[in-house]
Amino acid sequence: MIYLQIFLAFLIPGIVGYGGGPASIPLIEHEVVNRYGWMTTSQFSEVLALGNSLPGPIATKMAGYIGFEVGGVVGSLVALFATVAPSLILMVLLLSLIYRYKDSPRVKRLSKVVLPAVAILMGTLTFDFFSESYASNGLWETIFIAILTLLLLEKWKVHPAFVIVGGLTFGAIFLV
Amino acid sequence: MKLYRDLFIAFFRSGILGFGGGPSAIPLVHKEVVGTFQWMNDDQFSDVLALGNTLPGPINTKMAGYIGYRVGGIMGLIVALIAAILPTVLLMLALLTSFNQFKDNPRVQGMTHAVVPIVGVMMGVLTWSFLKKAKSGLGWKKASILLIGCLICIVVLGIHPGIVIGVLLVGALLLPEKKNKIEVHAKGKSESL
User: Fold this and answer.
1) Who among A15, A22, A56 is closest to B56 (CB)?
2) Would you say B71 and A94 are in contact if contact means Cβ atoms under 8 Å apart?
3) What is the ipTM of this complex?
4) pTM recorded for the entire structure
């Protein structure tokens, strides 16, 4: 039964997540944290942090790992299959059909019209991460780390992997 | 055999060298597919990419699977997918399972606490880029009406995001193409759920 749940948990983000893997992260969180309760927000953010510090597509890294945590190797394979297969099958089967309508304004607006929904989902996940950090690290620590991270990533263009390794080091020394 | 090996190399390389999720690895895929192995020309590649973006789901695996299929049939599809996904998933498993063995250590707990606001900022940056995309794709007026509608549906009313997105997609396909009508209808529809 657990495999069916894993399948559904990753099928929905795979089917409704427009904008590539990163867009499906908040949808995955919705299923994994809110719906099935397999992880807390903090555990999810840990997985996401390590996922962001490693190369490769993010949706499949999350699916492969969370599937493994919940249901072992089979769980991992089920989660990966649910993430990848539906959209890929659509692509292989429908490509010639969509190709015919590729200039239709309706098809063009498909991927645009969901952007606000994805942005709202990402915004709420951002809020969850910060309130989680406020609860475990306190207000000033959260503000300090957040501003430093923002400067490092956006202003000084430091690679995300280094920022996360730096954060881990900071935590091991100062947040004990 | 050589074809499968080439497919594996192409998607392994673009997967393992790409940071920041699938979309940021697309230029690397382009380099392998159009440049190194010349399975497609520039126009074909951008067509496939544009069409891939009109479908949901992770983009990198869609590209890998589809290009693998076009070049080498079902076997090509499987080889390209495995090359794109498996190495980084295994890396992730190895790293996180060894990390979890020490999770009761206070230093490791400090590490996991410090990382929460960092992913918060990363998520915030991603949110901002999607807001900008929404504004440039839909215009600020339509984008903000849809934003408020989605906020009410998802956060206040607690409707499953999949349903909200489904309604938006159906609306995009079925509603007439008069610009000003669309926003009113789409909003009204998603709120009446």
Assistant:
1) A15
2) no
3) 0.85
4) 0.83
